[in-house]
Amino acid sequence: MSRFAVSPNATGVSQFDDRIHLVGLRLISATCGAALAVLLVWSVGRFISGPFRYLGYTPRAWHWDELVVAAICAVLLFFIAGDRAETPGRAGIAFLVVFVGLPVLLLPVFYGTIDRRTLAILSLVVVVSFGIIRIFHCLAPMVSLPRIPDVFPPALLLGLLSVASLALVIGLTGISIDWVSLTNAYEQRDEYSAASSSVVAYALGWTGGGALAALAAYGYHLRSWFYMAIGFGGLVAIYMLTGYKSYLLGAALVLVLALIFGRSREVRVWRVYLIFGGAISAAGVMDWVTGSNFFTSLGVRRAFSTAGINTGYFIDFFEKHPKYGLRHSVLSFMGEPPFSTSPAKLIGSVYYSQEGVAANANFLADGMANFGFGGMLGASAVVGIWLGFVDLVAAELPAGIVFAAIAVVLVAFSNTASLTVLATHGGAASLIALWIVGEDWRRRSVAMQSAEEVSGSSKLAQAGDAQTL
Question: Whole-prediction pTM value?
């Protein structure tokens, strides 16, 4: 028997070791996810619920059995997300578990007006919704994408178009680009709203969530200060123009994810949980030291908890009242909606008693407002299909970099309707941007490979000449 042959027993041991390693990774992921969930609930209870009670953080008489059901469903979400993401779409599912799944499962247990029966249904529907995301993510067609003609560097063209778009917006609004402090963001937002139009809103959404985020991540991948300046600088410029803090936080999020996951071909899910759990912890420590709630309000309340709280109110209201059926948006030709205002403003007026306040939530809440619990499943299918197309158009790029590039759009999914994200927040535009930078990377890879082959042939020729001599 050859000394290089592997015995059946050795093969069995190797397979056993692989299974042990897989179980270990899943345990690590579940542990980090559970720690993140505990930190989220603690942070909201310690720093947010009291000062922001008027914004929906109304304490609820909860029961241990409700918390146990929510915890079991959270574990199921961790199982759906998996322990490693070999594609950016899979990493996106883990991201949405953090920003949508856990807040919607856990926070309505402690805050709001939802009853026990509806809360149990919500927990089940959330798990099924993420299962649908996972299934539809795998259903994207495997087709060959068209190639961009070799006339102009694709990424450079995308960068120039992005700069032109920002210049157009500045010209249409007449707003100058000046630094806006976080405390003055609302004043800047009012100025932008007064000068904005549908053209401006679409241009900024497509440019910010689509092109600039992709350029920022791709620039880091290339170590190109030029593309990073356009990408990160453009996102900050949109914040200074509009006062929307989501763009400033989005720039920081893209940078952090790019730094951590870099050129990784896969994303370890436990690291995703650890990053955001660490961010929640850091915000809590900073507020404890300063005796304020500034950092948890900016990070935890805006990014995680408010949308989860509002989703509970969406469920509570639309479980008992007529649904919109998209008649306030794309299906307006089907007749008048049951209410004269948008779903978010309706919830704000009913539960916050404040006219004009938009209680923004996420794609699950919007699905509920339009078609009930079935609409939540339909909205999840839309998100899953989008993630599948992300994998398709970005197949040439490392998963870690693409994960960073879609972070701004993923945050948008956690704060608004799925169709709105695709149309106005850069969801569809991000697919085009990723296809363009993917083409740019393919050309660079082919050029580098050709250069290596030429170098290798030259070295072989030199070696042959030396041997002949």
Answer: 0.90
